[in-house]
Amino acid sequence: MNRLYRIAGALCGLLALSACLVTPGKFESSLDIRADRSFTFAYKGEILASDMGKEALTGGSTSSDEDAPEGEVENAPTLLPIAAQDEDFSDKTGNGAKGDEAQMQAVAAALSREKGFRSARYVGNHKFEIDYAITGRLTHAFLFPFNIDAQIVLPFVAVEMRGEDRVRVKAPGFANGFDKSQGPGGMGGAGDEAAKALDGRFTLTTDAEIVSQNQEEGAQSTPQGKRIVWTITPLTGEAPAATLRVRP
């Protein structure tokens, strides 16, 4: 998963942006969690990369390197070196639209080779068509996508272990209610265009006990257990969330 996180950062780094946020466009996503902690997550649809501006990268500071306190520049977060660290992108250079197109195609090709990515296709205008699915066991937290070096701190979906027998699911990327003051350096959520592009459905299925959930229509019974479906639109202000009780 570490390499997946680096590639998510490279999506931004290769755009030659000072900082960016990856957000969903049109999508269908599902998460199945069993009481024995096994899980399957899938995301099929668009991923958009949005420019968040120079101030997001440095925590709002626009001062030059010469004006920065000793050590600050060295420790400041940066995006472009992340791409350079990956051999798949190290030789992909170019300026202008042609260079950008080649870099985006290289990202799509690299994603296609990663575990979980059944396909990844660049369709232009900083938009990717993704088909991703992974199965595992919840012995630790699961995030999709996330990159700490690139300060991409708003994952689409986060699954967190709580104590010995609880799992908390939250999908902050599937809502437009994220507090902009909470982003890295105050950069906040996606821009207006990315917010307008939000269009999808997130389905949670489980045979574990549902402790709490925030879909007003509640959970529906199925042969495999319970199912909760959130319809996501640009008007969705509250992130889908649920807490489950699983076996220790």
Beta-strand residue percentage: 35-45%
Counting DSSP E segments of at least 2 residues, the number of strands comes to 12
Shape: globular
Oligomerization state: single chain
Biggest sheet details: 7 strands, mixed
Number of helices: 6
Q: Give helix % range.
A: 10-25%
Which structural class is indicated by helix and strand composition? alpha+beta
Average pLDDT works out at 75
> What is the ordering of alpha helices and beta strands?
HEEHHHHEEEEEHEEEEE
Give a written overview of the molecule.
This protein has one domain (2-245). A 7-stranded mixed β-sheet has the order 3-4-2-1-8-11-10. The protein is α+β, with helices and mostly antiparallel strands and 248 residues long. Helices cover 19% and strands 36% of the residues. Mean pLDDT is 75; it is low at 15-19, 54-93, 147-153 and 179-189.
